[in-house]
Every structure is written in structure tokens, then in C-alpha cells.
Amino acid sequence: MIWQGFSLIDGQGCHLATTTNGLIVYGSDELRVVSDSATDFRAVLVGTGSEGAGSEFRLWKAGLTVSRYRADCAGRAYSLNRIRVGPLTSIFAPGREIRAVDLGELAVTEPGSGTKAAEPVLSAGTDQPGSDSDMLIRPGNGTVVATTCAEMDGDLVVEPQVKLDAPLDLDLVFMSWALTYVDTPTRRTNY
Questions:
Q1: Of 2, 127, 177, 181, which residue has the fewest beta carbons closer than 10 angstroms?
Q2: How many CB atoms lie within 10 A of CB 9?
Q3: DSSP string covering the chain, please?
Q4: Residues in CB range of 21: below 8 A, 6 or more apart
Q5: What is the rounded distance in angstroms from the CA atom of residue 113 to the CA atom of residue 75?
Q6: Separation CA 191–CA 185 (nearest Å)
């Protein structure tokens, strides 16, 4: 999958999600963006197709640099940390690894295996954006659900590492769109 412009497109060229006028539309689900800050991106689930209408989705910077982000998608926790996927990754094409902290709640299946649950490692903390005490997630914990890699033209490649089922698919659409504000050079905003 790849975010090109304002559309998330799969390998066959089908538009999976679009963004217009502060809305992220994925199937019958709509997320209304309430903050498009690259340090604290927020949206709320709206629309008639959603059982969880009113649920909050948030992606925020978890340190001084943009190398570590955290996400809370309607109560489901993720870590989004920079990784190296090639020799020029860190400067010219940032890559990220998206890890679900507790897959037991998501019931995600890995290709070729059964359901895998990760050890929960959340700890309650403050609600200050960018605070490391928001979520204490040890590096390498959780299961990798996707990787991303920014391209120089502003596109963001999203590679799912597990089978995408609800609610993980909507979570990934939200997180990957928010990452276009952080990792792609054509959308880069002030931090």
C-alpha cells in the first residue's frame, strides 16, 4: 500500500482510503481530524458505519526527536519507532516499525500461524503530549504489524506484516496518514 497524495492505494491501484477537508475516509468509517500537528495528531471516529463513533485516535511524539512516536487508537496502543531499511533510510527515506503493544485485544493473526498476543507493557502516566511517561513501551516489545518507508516524492509506503482485520485496518490507516505529516518531505510541518 502507498499514500500517494491524499489516497491510500493498494498494489492493484484501488483506492482504500482518502482524505479530504479534514476527514480520513476508509470504507464506511470516517475519522475527523481535530489536530494535524506533527507532534500530536488527533482524530475522532464519526459516521453511521462505526460502532465506536466518538472514539479518539491519537499519535504523538514520545521524545525530543521524531524518532519515537506512540499511538492510541480507541484504546489500542502502538509504538512507531524509526528503523533502518537501507543505507540512506534515516536521512532521505525514513522508515518506521509499527508495533501493537497488546495483540490479545486485537486478535491479529500472523501469516502462517494462529493468534499471537504480545506481553502487555503499558503503564499509566500523564496525558502530556510527548511525555515518555504517557506509555512505557520497552523497545522490541509487541508485535510488528506494519512498516513504513517515506519516499522523496512525498509518498509513504505502508507494508502490513500481519493480516489486516478490523480494528487494526482503521488504526493503520490513521497512523500511516498521520506519519505523512512527520516523515514525508513534501508534507513536513514545523515540529
A1: 127
A2: 17
A3: -EEETTEEE-TTS-EEEEEETTEEEETTEEEEEEEEETTEEEEEEESTT-TTTT-EEEEEE-SSSTTEEEEEETTEEEEEEEE-SSTTHHHHS-EEEEEES-HHHHT-B-TTS-B--PPP--------TT-TTS----TT-SEEEEEEEE-TTS-EEEEESS---TTHHHHHHHHHHHHHHHH-TTT----
A4: none
A5: 25
A6: 13
User: Is 44:34 a contact under the CB 8 Å cutoff?
Assistant: yes
The CA distance from 96 to 17, in Å, is 20
pTM of this structure = 0.76
Question: d(Cα 59, Cα 66) in Å, to the nearest integer?
Answer: 12
Rounded CA-CA distance 59/182 in Å is 11
Mean pLDDT in consecutive groups of 10 residues from the start of the chain, 191 residues: 93 92 91 92 80 86 89 93 68 81 52 36 35 42 88 89 81 94 70 46
Nearest to residue 58, comparing CAs of 160, 187, 175? 175
Report the relative pairing of strands 15-20 and 29-37 from DSSP bridges.
unpaired
